[in-house]
Design brief:
The structure is a homodimer. With about 425 residues, chain A is α/β, with parallel strands linked by helices. Chain A has 19 helices and eight strands. In chain A, the strands form two sheets. Chain A has a four-stranded parallel beta sheet, sandwiched between helices.
Amino acid sequence: MSEDYRPMWADLGLDLKAHDALLGVLGNAYQDIFLSQKERPEGMGYFDFVMSEVHGLRIKELLDEKAAGRKIVGCYCVFVPEELVLAANATLVGLCAGADFATDAVERLLPRNTCALIKSTFGFKLGKVCPYLESADMVVGENTCDGKKKAYETLDHLVDNLFVMDMPQAKSAQGKSLLKAEYYRFKSALEDLTGVAVTVQSLRQAIETVNAKRAAIHRLSALRKADPAPISGLDALLANQVFLYDNPARFTDAVNKICDELEVRVENKMGVSAARKPRILVSGCPQAVPNWKLPFIVERSGAVIVGEESCVGERGTRNLTDASGESVDEMMEAITDRYFKVDCAIFTPNPDRLAHIEEMAAAYKADGVIHYGLQFCQPYLMEAIPVEKALEEKNIPCLRIETDYSNEDAGQLKTRVEAFIEQLR
Amino acid sequence: MSEDYRPMWADLGLDLKAHDALLGVLGNAYQDIFLSQKERPEGMGYFDFVMSEVHGLRIKELLDEKAAGRKIVGCYCVFVPEELVLAANATLVGLCAGADFATDAVERLLPRNTCALIKSTFGFKLGKVCPYLESADMVVGENTCDGKKKAYETLDHLVDNLFVMDMPQAKSAQGKSLLKAEYYRFKSALEDLTGVAVTVQSLRQAIETVNAKRAAIHRLSALRKADPAPISGLDALLANQVFLYDNPARFTDAVNKICDELEVRVENKMGVSAARKPRILVSGCPQAVPNWKLPFIVERSGAVIVGEESCVGERGTRNLTDASGESVDEMMEAITDRYFKVDCAIFTPNPDRLAHIEEMAAAYKADGVIHYGLQFCQPYLMEAIPVEKALEEKNIPCLRIETDYSNEDAGQLKTRVEAFIEQLR
């Protein structure tokens, strides 16, 4: 880190010793997993810097914004519309949920059979190691899966200013109207928080800002269709992860710069490796920072990941929001339309997701699909079985993985992944 | 059984060999668990007969009803209003889900980490051993928990005529309006099935029929407040289980007859045992037939169960439906009001359930509460932790159990239950 941030972390109430340990592990993992890769695009230097300052400079920026009167909103899910947050003159950041922490304390509040993502949310809070969470003026939960919705009841006692949005379970007219009503309720809560009313102008500009960020990611994704792939899956995943908490305009520029570089690579048929590698599509649960276990194993086993059908990936970013509305309500409707399309496994039925996986497998010329399921994540683990069956009926090889954030199964995972990749050669 | 039902079962497409094995196990379990009890009320003879004919005479009755043109509707949940089914001139039966069956086949369709209740639903279908399911003209699912809602997507390929009702997740105005709209959709589906329009008269009569059944169970419950308890928890649970698929009027009579007998016992201070026994309230997941493991262990360990805060128990039966409406819509509203009060853990937040547990613990003079959680049932396992904490803050001892339908943990459960009961003496 470029500065001594310890006083800042202490002010936020972090447990400095535990936080040092976390940063130490994170730094080593980043070195081993990311910096050791060959043929990385130069533009990844930006993300290396972002990651090296993930709890430093970015937090300082947020605290500077707070000092200037701006509010910080933290969230755990892609159903929280960044458009509304920006339009109310606040900043949205995704909250830490990609590593085990303070497990003993967590399991006093949550059943052991809870998915790693939810446990991590609690672990970062109870262990006092997430400066994003501690900086947030509002924390937004959503009634997506059973695990999250029930966990928020307990999280409500651990954080101030938790705002929980209700969610539909079916893509019906009633479901859509519930989502729109909840987005209106969220807008009011934001306006109360910031004292800034959302206007046609501010909402349109916010939509355009978020769309620009998405468009940059779309450009990056499109370049990954090239064979050989011009960027590793790990690096592309990192961009998708940083999407969730970087400054939007700066992020958009950084991704577009990488794309400029990758376009030259594609033109020269240059890839991340000279040899032809099996191409993998990863589909399933979100992969929050620093949950890099699966892509690391896949890419060290001689394959390249060409796409993520995931919240941290195309499920979260594929759709733009229509900015053409001429009233706040028209834009609220456009926002609802946009998020209602997200094909999360919490919806029943959820045929769009399978269609999207098949579409991505074709578009990215994937040789096989790895379905990534977090243990005890019922919605995705349940969908995985019919998804695998449907893919195999179309002769798309599929490997179903069920794992958590520990490294205990790394050896076993590696064996299974290697065998799967071997069969794709 | 009093007749040879094998041709009937064969006609229903049951696997006769597997079904024989199931009935054999069931019969032995019933003998060991129920018939071996001492000081049983004579009125339990009715339920002994019902259970001995559970796949025999009751199925024959349903098939006779079908032959006479009446339709049979099967369901898995207390959110399915029997009032509507009866008003449309059909019969509602709860479907088998209390025992493991065909586990290998089930685990090809569902993740291993799925709760036993849902696996059992699939096992009875795949193993072809549930004559209720095979008799049903319509099977009703509901988007309650993640496990069920996603499992119905697969069940839809295994059964004909699956009707899935959407459910709210929060007790908001929007949630209630969704429930009412879904009940209207269900009413139309029933009317289409039976060709019988629901009228003010038929709906009022149906409400009264179901209320009478509930009132009989309330009378039975009230008698269990006496010390010593005049009936075992096992026998009372059995009545609550049979509630879900017996002929309503006959069931009401049978329960009232037991109550007449129990009133005399209470007057004479006669209990199921001479010695004073610790009184236990069981709270949590439903206990479907033949899932008698926990109450059997509790009562053989020297305690008596005095109440069930459960779908198969007071959560399912406590509220009556207002029959005073003067239009179908007024009664639909009353039905919605009644079911919207059910304090299932799928709702968030769900403070009414804790209040009800505390209320029951006081009313039934419980010495302690056993929270019964099915493994992988996220809503109840998540609620169990704050429930236990709240009870212990009020000095109500609480034991949290997490189990499934296997007998593998019976020894371990017995040890824990015995230790808990010991502490209550």
